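TEACHING EXERCISE
Course module: macromolecular assemblies
Task: Read the component lines below, then compare them to the predicted structure of the full complex.
Student: A.B.
Group: 4
Components provided:
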Amino acid sequence: DAKTTQPPSMDCAEGRAANLPCNHSTISGNEYVYWYRQIHSQGPQYIIHGLKNNETNEMASLIITEDRKSSTLILPHATLRDTAVYYCIVRVVGAAGNKLTFGGGTRVLVKP
Amino acid sequence: ETGVTQSPTHLIKTRGQQVTLRCSSQSGHNTVSWYQQALGQGPQFIFQYYREEENGRGNFPPRFSGLQFPNYSSELNVNALELDDSALYLCASSLQGGAYEQYFGPGTRLTVT
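Instructor-supplied answer key:
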């Protein structure tokens, strides 16, 4: 699976949009981009995933560049409960197993 | 809430002992994956079970073993516990194949003294 690079930490203001970048310059054509978050001491929570088109759900939007070498997770209106570690993961789909390879993630602190 | 449950919540064991952790997958999911998360690090993939067989394994020694039952629930067994095995153990359930997302349980906190 391709490796990802994320900033180690970022702050954002409550009520504002939070834009979380992820670099995956070695991504292959059959690899999807997944985002998970982990609130302190809880299990990771699935947020969103995509292949090459932009995706949106009730939690967030995922913007993937045309060359697929980077992506941005957008939390449209950050709340204090969005404070968490956010993981960007790329995964081969179709290979045996559903292994997720977690990196260091981005520690997001939402401030009042 | 994901519908994935794990037991026990916390566990304290002594070095050299054996431990069994349990996971019940979300209804309809046929695949269970196990992860180890040391303090301050991201989760590391241990192995995955599909149709009661191991279907992928990370860089963990054979003393980490597992089972999956016909109802898709799963167990993680660790023999000859070492101090470095102290971690949060997470299980995740999903459907096999495709781009399906995994849903994680709350984890079991294992402390080895």
